[in-house]
Amino acid sequence: MTVHPSLQTSIDAWTHSIEAISALVNPLVEGEWNRATELPGWSVRDVVSHVIGLECEMLGDPRPIHTLPRDLFHIKDELSRYMEVQVDVRRCHTAPEMTSELEYTIIRRSRQLRNEKREPDATVRGPLPGMETTLEEALRIRVFDVWLHEQDLRRALGTPGNLDSPGAQIVQERLLSGLPKVVAKKAAAPADSSVVLDVSGPMEFIRTVRVDAQGRGTLDSSVSLGPTVTLAMDWETYVRLAAGRVRPAAVAGQLKIDGDPELADAILRNFAITP
């Protein structure tokens, strides 16, 4: 085996999600590529273009030389401008061009990952501009991104599924790792408070964020007695909120809130951990 065992889980999860994306979009007719997703300004075609573009960059391909039009009002900062280049350059591509490039990119990237001989802690370029990270972390970031975009496409196309796939496991870990910062820092939960997150569905779990006397938040799986706030929701709603796909008001019917309403509101306003 050339692949380090600790990388295999991420490679398998990436493969599962990106092949699911390919299966979703292969039968689409031209008009379906223009369906809007929950990502501002991005259609189904744009999400697939983004996935293709970042995988090509992970392969070491040069970025396109492309000037963005001035009327892309969803571009708010330099990061979104950077990400938009790989998207906008493909907006004129036809459905067959999109599916062909996606399939070819999957073949190339799968071959690269199968032949990966570097150690998990090897320094590599990350998926974000100017980013360097370990190979293991870079793969986990790609799983996180690809699985979330698979779900973006499924919601846009009305084809739910894979909410408990291998990629979902990695996404759950990553989203939960950001929860203490959301509660303790962004929402400024008071010292000695506790917040319980109760998530139902295919990836059900209960976690408690405890804020100590110094204002630091920690996450554990025990259930707090008499928590300051309890937030209950289903797994897909949690993903959409934590990944910044929707605002709390848009999914209010899927949320159950108990405890301090002001703290609950502050947490939900700061719930997204993605850029």
From TrEMBL:
Keywords associated with the record: Isomerase, Pyruvate
Keyword Isomerase applies: yes
SUPFAM superfamilies linked: DinB/YfiT-like putative metalloenzymes, SCP-like
Gene Ontology MF terms in the entry: isomerase activity; metal ion binding
MDMPI C-terminal domain segment(s): 179-265
Pfam families found in the cross-reference section: MDMPI_C, MDMPI_N
Occurrences of domain Mycothiol-dependent maleylpyruvate isomerase metal-binding (ranges): 15-154
Domain of life the protein comes from: Bacteria
NCBIfam families: maleylpyruvate isomerase family mycothiol-dependent enzyme
Name of protein: Maleylpyruvate isomerase family mycothiol-dependent enzyme
Organism: Streptomyces palmae
Lineage of source species: Bacteria, Bacillati, Actinomycetota, Actinomycetes, Kitasatosporales
